[in-house]
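Curious: explain these tokens?
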Amino acid sequence: MDAFTKHKGLVAPLDRTNVDTDQIIPKQYLKTIKRTGLREGLFSDWRYGPDGKGDRTFFLNQARYQGATVLLARDNFGCGSSREHAPWALMDYGFRCLIAPSYADIFFNNCFKNGMLPVVLKPEEVSQLFTEVEAQVGAQMTVDLASQTVTSPSGATFHFDIDPFRKESLLKGFDEIGITLTHEAEITAYEQRRKQEAPWLFADLT
């Protein structure tokens, strides 16, 4: 998993509340268990629509937001089903960071497990960011995980809270397997000791 330390990137605003995971990545794209190849399905109902035209005002259909790596959203982002394909699709498109007042719990946890940082800011702070981003073409933000700050296009700085364990894991680029492997020496020593203490547990029964 790639480490997240400090990121500066173009911001895309999704000014909708209660965006569920079926809108983030609709069910027809869930046939794969790979984390790549999902970018075309991201928000596909809004991007393409039943007639193939979709919503022309939707940010993924606007040239000014192409290449965005920070997604600005509203309350309860990622609600609905627990599909891990939702953060996979966002990351495959190129997003490394999300900023919103609140997230659905399972989606929030899945972001951290996949190396994407979901920042929680106050509703009024998020509203200010929406105003700045929509007013300036090419607006960028800087998200510094070490200092737990978001710097807006105008230079305003907002602080966000994060669980210390999750912060450390992102800074080091460790998912749950990576964290476990940091204790590889202790695990190996334990297995060797158990083979001596209880050899019958390791007998070849084939």
